[in-house]
Write a structure and sequence with these properties.
There is one protein chain. By secondary structure, the chain is mainly β. It has 2 domains: 67 residues, no CATH class; 88 residues, E3 ubiquitin-protein ligase SopA (Pectate Lyase C-like), CATH 2.160.20. It is built from no helices and 11 strands. It has a 7-stranded parallel sheet with strand order 2-4-6-8-9-10-11, with no helix packed on it. The chain has a 4-stranded parallel sheet with strand order 1-3-5-7, with no helix packed on it. The model has no long low-confidence stretch (mean pLDDT 93).
């Protein structure tokens, strides 16, 4: 049985989606919290002001997706279909989510809460963390080559167990690279 395909459609204030493919669709003010998105394909879609917390993401396809002003607590993106996985987050709350082991190069996180989010084993080459709160975010064996943390804050990244070649940091954020040494640096507010 062939699954339905929705194209160029706007969904407002819905709480359930049918299994199928959604291409170039807009989702506005939807509450999908605790829903099961397993197997659904999203291509070039925009989610605005949606609650996507605690979604089940088994084999979900996210290709060229934008999330704006969304609440996305506790999501396990590593359960998504990794083929073509691309998304952008602006002014979202991704606290306690996981990107474990994903190759998500050039991902943009802008004005986004990433507290206690797991980036272990992920490839974040060329990623941008613009004005993001990374309190207790986990970076372990993470590839951060050329990643931009200049306006991010509250991060703790151990350079000895992560690949950070050519990553960008601000002077005020440098303490986030030295936390493991438990040292004090005068003249820098942390």
């Amino acid at each position: 049985m062939e699954q339905p395909c929705f194209e160029d459609t706007t969904f407002e204030k819905v709480t359930h989606l049918s299994k199928g493919e959604y291409e170039n669709c807009d989702f506005k003010n939807c509450d999908f919290s605790n829903a099961d998105f397993s197997g659904i394909r999203f291509l070039e879609c925009i989610f605005t002001a949606c609650n996507l917390s605690l979604l089940t993401l088994g084999n979900v396809t996210f290709q060229k997706i934008k999330f704006n002003d969304c609440k996305m607590l506790g999501l396990h993106f590593e359960h998504c279909n990794s083929f073509g996985l691309t998304f952008r987050f602006e002014n979202c709350n991704l606290n306690m989510s996981s990107f474990y082991g994903l190759k998500i190069k050039k991902t943009v996180f802008s004005r986004t809460q990433l507290q206690e989010t797991d980036f272990s084993e992920a490839d974040l080459t060329d990623a941008l963390f613009d004005d993001c709160d990374l309190t207790r975010a986990a970076f372990s064996n993470t590839t951060l080559i050329n990643a931009d943390f200049r306006t991010a804050y509250n991060y703790s990244i151990n350079p000895e167990i992560n690949r950070i070649k050519k990553a960008k940091f601000s002077l005020s954020g440098i303490t986030g690279l030295l936390n493991k040494y438990d040292i004090q640096i005068d003249g820098i507010k942390s």
